């Protein structure tokens, strides 16, 4: 029986595999975006039909829908909002994460930020070679 030869896993081979997987992911993400757009369009139409018929629930043969509501906030005045947070100590109104670009700017100016420990995040930058 002849021996099957497998291409050795060189760095270049693995880079090309990484590129192929990234391209496969991009194609899948593009398909997901189309599906999400279709879902948004259909949800908007269904909500309008339910509202027109004054319904808050409806069923098909494979699924049911019900209308849910939640109150969310949009910041219109950042100055007022941040003054409120500072005065009342209602920091739970904010997401708990650091804005990396602002943090890097402070570090570049030689300033430290209490409570934050810097770490170096490493990643590969993958670029397509033009043909």
Summarize the topology.
Layout (H helix, E strand, L loop, with lengths): L10 H42 L4 E3 L4 E3 L11 H11 L11 H9 L23
Antiparallel strand pairs: 1-2
Calculate the terminal CA-CA distance, rounded to whole Å. 39 Å
Order of strands in the sheet with the most strands?
A: 1-2
SS-based class? mainly alpha
The portion of residues forming beta strands comes to under 5%
**Main pleated-sheet profile:** 2 strands, antiparallel
Model description:
With 131 residues, the protein is mainly alpha-helical. It has a domain at 11-65 and 76-108. Helix content is 47%, strand content 5%. The chain has 3 helices and 2 strands. A two-stranded antiparallel sheet has the order 1-2. Strand 1 (57-59) and strand 2 (64-66) form a beta hairpin. The longest helix has 42 residues, at 11-52. The chain is flat and about 65 Å long. The mean pLDDT is 92.
Provide tags for this entry.
131 residues, mainly alpha, two-stranded antiparallel sheet, 3 helices, flat
Quick overview:
With 131 residues, the chain is mainly alpha-helical. It has three helices and two strands; from the N terminus they run αββαα. The chain has a domain at 11-65 and 76-108.
